[in-house]
Amino acid sequence: MESVNQKIDIILPNGIELFIKREDQLHPIISGNKYRKLKYNLVTAKEEGYNKLLTFGGAYSNHIAAVAGAGKEYGFETIGVIRGEEIEDKLQDNPSLNFAKQNGMNFHFIDRTSYQNKTDEAFITTLHKLFGDFYLIPEGGTNDLAVKGCEEILTETDKLKFSHVCCAMGTAGTISGIINSSGEKQQVIGFSSLKGDFLSDVIRNFVTKENWNTNCDYHFGGYGKVSDALIQFLNDFYRKTKIPLDPVYTGKMMFGIVDLIENDYFPPHSKILAIHTGGLQGIAGMNTILEKKNKKLIAYND
Ligand SMILES: *Cc1c(COP(=O)(O)O)cnc(C)c1O
User: Fold this and answer.
1) pTM of the shown model
2) Do 32-141 and 5-29+147-292 fall under one CATH topology?
3) How is the chain split into domains, by residue range?
4) DSSP string of 146-184?
5) Is the pLDDT of residue 93 over 90?
6) What is the whole-number distance in angstroms between the Cα of residue 34 and the centre of ligand 1?
7) Is 301 a residue whose pLDDT tops 90?
8) Hey, which of 26, 42, 67, 212 has its CA 20 to 30 A from 104?
9) CA 14 – ligand 1 centroid, Å
10) CATH number 3.40.50.1100 given to 32-141
11) Quick one: CATH architecture of 5-29+147-292?
12) Using a 6 Å cutoff on CB, does residue 171 contact ligand 1?
């Protein structure tokens, strides 16, 4: 499956061209990179005879929504282990979890400390006692099979045409697949949506190439955090291009790309491909949070 590369029509200096790969339009409900990451996991789960998927995520997780959607479409029961016991009583306020529920996902809410230890063998054993046999997909969906799926994002033409490929990072599975399939002369840049510089080590577990670097300057205070300037950027970018970006990943990446272009980070005549990894389902949830704080909302309706 291939998605469209759309040229971004904003004025850029030094003959630089910027394109965006619309992976957000790859699948109506299993959005963007989550489709790529789940693909071979679902094939394997089917082959190995599982009929239940279990995974982990936060309250507004794109991954949780995607696993629920995939379960419904491909005939798996789904269980979402969700961070934060308090969320259970506030389900109706949460568009992401509502979507997952409508797609048949069952939830298991756990406190934040237990969530931190969710990969411990003892905890997994407890989950098996509760839910029986299941195919386990890690938080964010990153494993070898996910990276393999993300190796299919770039086309042969993309590998030749673009000097730089940019992608947002959460657990760094997507960028790892992109690096593995990138062209010799391309530079792949990962924009971290989290505070701290630890994803390079994760990437090195999955790749052997060296044509990549990470940028940790555009996390806006950390995972899921936004600023007024970021929201303003998203709304302006939409007004100019009609391309919706999500506030957690692709919006921060695009803010970073435009800022770096304006600061002459990219050589003249660079041809940059930004990956739109999707995540638009998270906008409604972010707006409920912004609304409570009396902040400007993400508005893509004109
Ligand atoms: C999950 C997600 C990412 C991060 O992907 P990783 O493989 O975890 O780095 C990026 N963009 C969007 C929209 C996502 O939903």
Assistant:
1) 0.97
2) yes
3) 5-29+147-292, 32-141
4) HHHHHTTSS-HHHHHH-SEEEEEESSSHHHHHHHHH--T
5) no
6) 7
7) no
8) 26
9) 30
10) yes
11) 3-Layer(aba) Sandwich (3.40)
12) yes
